[in-house]
Amino acid sequence: MNQDALLNWFHQNQRSLPWRLNPSPWSILLSEILLQQTQMQRGIEYHKRLYERFPTPSSMAKSEVDEVLFLWQGAGYYSRARRLHALSQIVVTDFEGVLPSTYNELLALPGIGPYTAAAVASIAFSHPVACVDGNVRRVMARQTNNADPSVKDVQEYADGMIVREHPGDWNQAMMELGALVCRPRNPTCNECPVHESCRGTLRANELPRPKKQKKKEVELQCIIKVDAQGQPELIQRPDSGLFAGLWGPQMEEKLDSEGLEYLGCIKHILSHRTMNVHVWKDTCKQGIDPNTVALSTLDRRILTLAGVFLNVPTE
Ligand code: SF4
């Protein structure tokens, strides 16, 4: 890869972000923690809000964690705010209020993983440690035409490529290339400063192959009780957890179904889990009209299996 070409491209095309205009280590750390799980535009807003109120680690350390949480409202993943507050207090007690500069010291702080430690050490302190994130993995997979690079492969590639004189710019250039040009879908290879060394252009959209997420499989027991008129007994589920606030029959990991009629197993697939629901039928004195309450698709499937009439059939 032509490293000079990529660095030149970065200097001409990098987005003007608040933490680039005013690159204090604390500002860079805030940005990296925010961008771990927040979109860029929202990250910029929250960075402004937090950095104005807490321009230094000491100013945050003196505040209550509730104030950090209050400013964090809407950014999600609130444990980040708690860890950041704890981090600021450690920086004050152990480092006299000055953010430590080495990868290992940063990695030991609350809320800092390998990526964030490498980003802050290189961008804020010019230490030659390579960052690996999804952008770098994608650029690497395409440059080397490797559909399935391991974590080790990507780290070795990034370590081998880093420009030791400008590690912060280099890491940002790789990530910026992935964000702006070598995008997940339809990369603009004709604008790419490193297209000459790229071996994956012909099948770039297929590189890298998405990681297979192993779905969790859970076994559940459900007892559906139906009255003489064919109406089921339904309970409203709690306000938190799966299907919060919706209505349905009793469903647990373990239920006493001895002597009951077994209706069958429903396989229900959600984004991160597969539910195998074993359904048993029982009777009850008086059920309710299931068409008057909110039901999940799974509960509709269970009711249909039990022969309960629904106005809106299950898809
Ligand atoms: Fe990505 Fe295309 Fe550049 Fe290769 S040439 S690194 S696929 S943008």
Ions, cofactors and other bound molecules: iron/sulfur cluster
Overall mean confidence score, pLDDT: 91
Structural class: alpha+beta
CATH class of the largest domain: Mainly Alpha
Question: Which value, in Å, is the CA radius of gyration?
Answer: 27 Å
Structural account:
A 4-stranded mixed sheet has the order 4-1-6-5, covered by helices on one side. The protein has helices spanning 3-13, 18-21, 25-35, 40-53, 57-62, 65-72, 79-95, 103-107, 114-125, 134-143, 151-161, 167-180, 297-305; strands at 216-226, 235-236, 247-248, 250-252, 261-269, 273-283. The mean pLDDT is 91. A hairpin with a 3-residue loop joins strand 5 and strand 6. Helix 1 packs across helix 12 (167-180), helix 3 packs across helix 4 (40-53) and helix 9 (114-125) packs across helix 12 (167-180). The longest helix has 17 residues, at 79-95. It is elongated, with a radius of gyration of 27 Å. By secondary structure, it is an alpha+beta fold. Helices cover 42% and strands 12% of the residues. It starts with a helix and ends in a 10-residue tail after the last helix. It has 2 domains: 3-206, Endonuclease III, domain 1; 216-305, Nucleoside Triphosphate Pyrophosphohydrolase.
